[in-house]
Amino acid sequence: MNNKNIKAGITVFPGSNCDADVYRVLNAVFGVNASFIWHKDKIKDLKKYDFIVIPGGFSYGDYLRSGALAARSPIMELVKDYAVKGGITLGICNGFQILLEAGLLGGVMLANDSLKFECKDVYLKTLNTDTPFTCAVKKNSVLKMPIAHHDGNYFATGSIIGGLNKKNGIIFKYCDEKGQITAGSNPNGSLHNIAGISNETGNVMGLMPHPERSSEKILGSEDGGWIFKSMIKYVKEK
Amino acid sequence: MNKTKRSTEKLFGLSVEEYEKISELLGHEPDGFELGIFSAMWSEHCSYKSSKVYLKTLPTEGGKVLIGPGENAGVVDFGDGDVLVFKMESHNHPSFIEPFQGSATGVGGIMRDIFTMGARPVANLNSLRFGSFSHPRTPYYLSEVVKGIGFYGNCMGVPTVGGEVVFDECYNDNILVNAFTIGIAKKDGIFLSSKCEVGNIVVYVGSATGMDGIHGATMASEEFDLKKNKKRSTVQVGDPFTEKLLLEACLEAMEKKLIVSIQDMGAAGLTSSSFEMADKSGKGMLIDLDAIPLRTAGMTPVEMMLSESQERMLIACEKEKLDELKAVFDKWGLNCVKAGEVIKEKVIKFYYNSKIYKTLDVDVIVNGPEYKRPVKKPEYLKEITPVKIDNYKIPENLNDIAVKIITHPNIASKRKVFTQYDYTIGTATVVPPGFSAAVLRVNGNKGFLLNAGGNSKYTYLNPFTGGALAVTECARNITACGGYPAAITDCLNFASPEDPEIMWQFASAVEGVKSAAVKLNTPVISGNVSFYNETAKKDGDKTYVSKIYPTPVIGMLGFIEDVNKALTPCFKDEGDEIYLLGSFKGELGGSLYMELAYGDFRQKPADLNLDYEVRLQNCLRSLIEKGFLKSAADVSEGGIFTALAENAITNPEKILGFAVDYDIKAHGLRIDEFLFSEFEQAFIVTMDKELSGRRESGIAVILKEYGIKLEKIGAVKKNIMKINGIIDLKSGKIKEGYYSVI
């Protein structure tokens, strides 16, 4: 299967602003056939897509709570239906927040413990490489990607964390360059340094850092590309 | 009572003479509506009445310039059918009154100027000036301004890739916020405000009009008096979410060819957009005030005309395309209402309550006064003489001074500032903030470089050369990355033009900008002037005026063929050899060292030789292009020590050091002159040791061609900072200080 036969859908809400980056990287760097899905597009379902990306940004201006309004947008009903039926769904940054608000993932996002917007490179330890998003990543490898968010401080109750642990749902944790999961390498105060989680069935992942901004050498890191490569690999082998 | 003062109170900033002139032009005394419109359009902010005569002298054409000043922003050819559109603008007064909203709407305003032209904003820069770092209000201004810039730029999805943050007591009572945006468009996809055709529909799009920002332009054209708090309602309130929708809607409408002409509603809102569009198109307009969407019911006509509510645009479109235009804005959930029509007669006819309310002549309104204000060389300059260094004993411990300099708030890392801005969005940022110039890639490997800054202390000490230095310094930063300086935008921040000494500073600084821009072939394609950056203060019974130093700030665009070849200033590997490229005079006048070591910087700084500067930069660029260099950084504030130290620690992922030995005796210098002289025309460059063989021939040819000297001064080391056995510091320790001040 050729990459260009893989169909990816990128949801676009008013205020989404990483949509064009994800689009460019999927099409131009990985040769996938990616297209936008406007939140009001009148479509029946998302069946034709091999995977869906909910990109970052400030959907609805982050008003009320980050992701809260987008989660109640008509297109999200289709995303929920797609995800429940096993569709591969990746939420990046604001997309992660939307997945939380939509109930597709467990937990919430608080404001960063610095109470400031934080844009910088972070290191991620890959804890589970047996997912559609990490199957091309070497186990325990450390990936360098940038974060850019104000509300990325992941929090969840003990029972949610317990559930995540049981199903290997914690996919990425913030770590230092050497892969040590330390307090100093946690950029936003996230519980247990959590940077990315999946749902119980493993087909939905939310991730705060931006893989699309770290998929090309010229931008300082190609590590984010492993996530897209994994998704492509998974689709091909399915 | 002082005449100007009285007029300020009574006439919204218009002078008595101006008021009389208006009465004469109208044939009657202006009523409230007319006075409101005149006060906005004839304000310094909108009319450039004091600066115009000088701005006309700036070079605005040549090189790759397609459109110079006069439109919303300037346009430069980027090749392959693409153009870059950029401009810098001040938002000083609003930011001093309400720093969060002031800076946020400054960023919002400049981005609108760019996408009004049909260009998608791709990067922001800013130049920020705050009061003394120890002033009790400075932390508040710093945190609020930075938050405001991030709030707006981050939400818009436009990366903020660089700029400068400067602290000086001259800004204690007038902070400066200068915002720069660059956008990219197709060469045949540029939109102008001058294309209205008779019969076009005038369409109002974007946010509804509210009571915010009324008299904003007038406020920005006055000094702050002792009752400044009363000006709060003149500051606009920004909503970046709406602007993001407006951006997408406008670009979509442009793409679909639904727009004939367009202008954003910035300073003086509907007034300036309607009159300027009409004037530039040589047409008139009918404006139906009943159609204007309002946030506050019952706003009067003059309030509607002067509101500076954000995120609004005025569009001229063909009658038959109105429905399609409405559909686009409807998709994005924005207002889009027919608010009038373009007419032949060059007047604006306002309708209100379904009747003709007022008819105003476009030429009368837009052709405001133009002044050649009195100039006088400032008294204080008489005291500015070259430093007599023999009168100053070299301090015992130069290491302490060196640490003080590298941890001075103006030198120390601004990392905690720029990490609050999203600088990675857009997948284009090749060299992020924190280095000399930002490097962005556009298509494939093609890219451009951006830099903004200016040295106000130097400009205070020598206004002409300060103006020139602002340009050459930006160019140095771009050249040091391997780029070609292409064009500039300027933000000229000064105190009151009614003071002849300030006007002299202004005239001299503009002359300096001009000289350097001509020599470096970097035309001025856009810009803005901000006067009245001064505040009346009371100290006990004494009243005085706190004025900023003359602060010309330059924003520069440079080109680079292959972003992979862009150089960063930081040292790369232990063992690399360190060289000094250029001339070295060792004059300490006006330096940070003089200020910190002796508490006195009011001396004449070293001169700037512009012919030499051009040769030096061309030489450096040749060396970079030939691949001889591994790093390059200019010697500026804080001198050679600071340049070396920064090169060792600005890449937090690879901290290095250096050992330098320089024969100061042979060069007739004192050690402090070598370490800290800062107004030098020189670069610190590094080379791979293995290159020695090739260096002889290849490098010598280039040096000879440009007549530039290259001296080896040391080598890159691991964790030490050693100079001439006198400076002896540890990189790790310096790094800690450098990154923790701000």
Tell me what the structure shows:
- Chain A has 238 residues and is of the alpha/beta class.
- Chain A has one domain (3-237): Rossmann fold.
- Chain A contains 5 helices and 11 strands.
- In chain A, the strands form 2 sheets. Chain A has a 9-stranded mixed sheet with strand order 2-1-3-4-11-10-9-6-7, sandwiched between helices. A two-stranded antiparallel sheet of chain A has the order 5-8.
- Chain B is an alpha+beta fold and 742 residues long.
- Chain B contains 25 helices and 28 strands.
- In chain B, the strands form 5 sheets. A 7-stranded mixed sheet of chain B has the order 8-10-7-11-9-12-13. In chain B, strands 23-25-22-26-24-27-28 form a 7-stranded mixed sheet.
- Chains A and B meet through helix 1 and strand 6 of A and helix 8 and helix 10 of B.
Write a short abstract of this structure:
The complex is a heterodimer of chains A (238) and B (742). Chain A has 238 residues and is of the alpha/beta class.
Q: Total helix count of chain A? A: 5
Could you name the CATH topology of chain A? Rossmann fold
Largest beta sheet: strand ordering of chain A = 2-1-3-4-11-10-9-6-7
Look at the helices and sheets of chain B and give the structural class: alpha+beta
Provide the low-confidence segments of chain B as ranges.
Answer: 1-9
> What global shape of chain A is seen?
globular
> Would you identify the regions of chain A where 5 or more consecutive residues have pLDDT less than 50?
none
Run of helices and strands of chain A: EHEEHEHEEEEHEEEH
C-alpha Rg of chain A (nearest Å): 16 Å
The count of domains of chain A is: 1
Query: CATH architecture of chain A, please?
Result: 3-Layer(aba) Sandwich
| Secondary structure tally: strands of chain B | 28
Label the CATH architecture of the domain at 567-742 in chain B: Alpha-Beta Complex
Q: State the secondary-structure class of chain A.
A: alpha/beta
| Portion in helices of chain A | 10-25%
What is the count of DSSP helices of chain B, taking H or I runs of 4+ residues? 25
Radius of gyration of chain B (CA) equals: 26 Å
